Amino acid sequence: MKLSIRHELIFDLGTPSRALLHLLLTPLNTPQQKVQGWSISMPGIKDAASFRDGFGNRAQLLTLSKPEGPIEIVVEGSVETMDRAGVLGRLELDPVPALFKRVTAATKPDETLTGSIKSSGDRIAMLHELMGYVHRLAVGPAQAQTQGSQRQSSSAEESDAADAFIGAARALGFAARHVTGYVLDESGGAFRGWAEVWEDGLGWIGFDPLLDLCPAEGHVRVACGLDGPGCVPVRTVPAWTAPPDETVRVTAD
Predict the structure, then answer these.
(1) Is the pLDDT of residue 153 over 50?
(2) CA-CA distances (angstroms) from residue 12 to 24, 35, 161, 178, 246?
(3) What is the mean pLDDT of residues 95-121?
(4) Lowest-confidence pick of 33-42, 135-144, 228-237
(5) Is the alpha carbon torsion for 195, 200, 203, 206 positive or negative?
(6) Residues 179, 59, 217, CA angle at the centre, nearest 5°?
């Protein structure tokens, strides 16, 4: 499937003498996707440093002197996606999986979740059971009966669902990480998070508890980190005082 994406963010940092911006808004080629074109438009982007960070993400770092008024970022591109049942394998410049067993403030294990999962010899089945349980908690029992209703959740709840899944998976002995990217859904698209879990023999496998399925053709992977707060799409110094105005459109061609 070929997906076309347009993502606009507008935020105001006030009137600092200088602002530093760190962007995680550029997807890379993986076994599940091929980037056919991608651009980021904003003040100063031509002078930005572009590099691969410690998690293998493509990052941009730039400084704006005396920014005036709201800062607008426009991301546009097209990506061809493939359905591999969520199996990503191992990516170029991936750190060792053991790094993603580290517990963070956002991924502290919930005993309610870990206690609900029955240990079995089938580790993949156990992860699917966990995904389904987090999905029901995130969207509610009634909404869970209707595919697509999860888009009624806020972006904060979406991030919490992925991190709740990650925390429980780590408590069960898995290496797990937070992934951000674009998702085609009934609302026309979203930028949000899901999870990936390491399993020997298969590598990284994606799990989206908001949809209760493994990422498929409707997902475009952008970046990963230990948790949601660690891989936000735009980080600024000074930090913004209010969330940016944001619109996302994802269409299938």
Answers:
(1) no
(2) 19, 30, 28, 27, 12
(3) 87
(4) 135-144
(5) negative
(6) 40
Length of the chain: 253
Instruction: Measure the CA–CA gap between 224 and 228, rounded to whole angstroms.
Output: 9
Q: Do the Cβ atoms of 54 and 91 come closer than 8 Å?
A: no
How far apart are the C-alpha atoms of 165 and 107, rounded to whole Å? Answer: 8
Ramachandran bin of 212, using left for φ above 0, alpha for ψ from -120 to 50, beta for the remaining angles:
left
Q: Which two tokens stand for residue 192?
A: 């949000």
Three-state DSSP at 81 gives: strand
CA distances from 27 to 6, 57, 127, 149, 181 (A): 13, 8, 26, 27, 8
Longest Cα pair distance anywhere in the chain, in angstroms?
59
Q: What is the pLDDT of residues 57-91, one digit of tens each?
A: 999 999 999 888 889 999 999 999 999 999 999 99
